[in-house]
Amino acid sequence: MIKNLFNTVHITAWLLLSCSALASEKAILDPNARFHPVVSDRGMVVSQEMLASQVGAAILARGGNAVDAAVATGFALAVTLPRAGNLGGGGFMLVHLAEEDKTVAIDFREMAPAAASKDMFLDAEGDVDNSKARFSIHSSGVPGTVAGLLHALDKHGKLSVKEVLQPAIELARTGFPVSVDLSSSLQSRQPRLHQNAASKAYFYKPDGSGYEYGETLIQADLAATLDRIAKRGRSGFYQGKTAQLIVAEMRSSGGLINRKDLTNYEVVERAPVCGDYRGNNVCAMPPPSSGGVHLLQMLNILEGWELESLGHNSAAYLHRLVEVMRRAYADRSSYLGDPDFFPVPVAELTDKRYATILREQIDLEKSSRSVDVRPGLEGSIAGDGSAAGKESTETTHFSTWDKWGNVVSATYTLNFSYGSGISVAGAGFLLNNEMDDFSAKPGTPNGFGLIGGVANAIQPGKRPLSSMTPTIVFGSTGEPILATGSPGGSTIITIVLQMVLNVVDFDMGVAEATAASRIHHQWLPDTVFYESGISVDSLQLLRGMGHQLSDKARVLGASQTIQRADDSGNVDKITDEKATQIQVTAPLLYGTSDYRRDGAGVAVPTVAD
Ligand code: DON
Predict the structure, then answer these.
(1) Whether pLDDT at 18 is above 80
(2) What residues contact 350, with CB distance under 8 A and at least 6 apart?
(3) Residue 416 CA: which ligand 1 atom is closest?
(4) Is the pTM of the predicted complex or chain greater than 0.90?
């Protein structure tokens, strides 16, 4: 197993070899590639916001491990990326511990408060009140982020709470320059955020106008909350002044979360779901995320076909993807929910024999129709999924990797951009609207067009079903070769799927894999969503096979990925065709922040120790 990865002799040799000898070998840094990753030999942090990545890299530079870096990055994102980085939300973190050769899945998903009930979002007519589910004080589950990050640090980190929180406190207290991305995002959400006095005060100037590029955003109340967490750990948030402020916010508008809900919040360390895919071991988040189960289910079906020879993003390839996605999301609607409340059939859904049955139902020439595809294990459920893709994709993923070979893949969220839009007055942070990820009424779509039933019905203390899919892939030698994840609501699982396929089946380096155009299908609506860059010929052929395509291209996700060469050695060679030389280097890390969003960044420690 990977031990002291970077203590191995650092071989840097220039070998004179002919180009022809390289022809069959793949290289992460390929001179023929159009996109190239950031390279590091001493650890890496990749996140949606460059200042936060730099915070994580600085933690690595001072001797912190991947968990310390991830926790510091997570808290920094709560300051610099307020639309998704958070204290008032929840998420998941996969941690690979090199020394123990063990991977754990930390579940810090929000929990429904004790006073929550199955029909709490239904109006007098029995219809779902979307505004109540998404933009009210009732939209929030009990936040899990602070407990989750502190749990990770306590169990698997090396540094103190103070050390990892200090950079975030500084960023909040003294402020940071507003990026174009933040300025425009706050501008676009102004109507909603202005409806809440605290959010208006926290994210806009005193006259209500937005911050321009380069102006400084100071968040004094948030700094004070972070400071309480730094001093008192978990009780700096779930008890004492922060808890008082949360409860006061709830009381002021009839919200359900009380002191007991806060003190009772529990982080759960779970076993990741792992499965073999073409000799690699793919590990991802188990329920209450649907991500890992359906990622493996889709890979299992696809494994029965040779994909590379079909050609990347050819119609034949995309047809297979769509049919596989359709079936996975049909199953999602019936069988997935919080495993502490509902017996999720993880083993059955990820069984290769079940994949074979589903594969055999797929006509390779013709599209099936979603109305004819039912959850495959048993039963059925209806719904039109008409809301699919309406909300913006504002969750956020970050990946960290240290010089010892520890790896973190974490995704956390407020759900929609800026969550419910309601900030806790005096505490400086936004509350999530994760309660909308429950199925408020069987067959009625949520904000991502996803439907569900009893498995994901609201119950006190239950965690809403998620699509967040932090993933770590282990290569042929058992060592980690990829840490990836993305925002994107319902599209997250299919985005991660395509990242894995691009790397494993199509031998792409991480930058090429990230840049490649993506598609998405989620059973309902029966629509293929696609990005620009998928050839019009492929789209036309898909239409000819009977697929219904969305009217126009859209953007799918924003992955944050680190890749490491498989120890088979081939991929670690940096080829230079012209000079006919190869630089052979001991295992390096290759990182790419998705090009789809502005402001993201890969950071590497500047000092090697
Ligand atoms: O957990 C989930 O699946 C969603 N709450 C994630 C939301 C997301 O990715 C951001 N999109 N708006």
Answers:
(1) no
(2) 273, 275, 293, 296, 297, 300
(3) 12
(4) yes
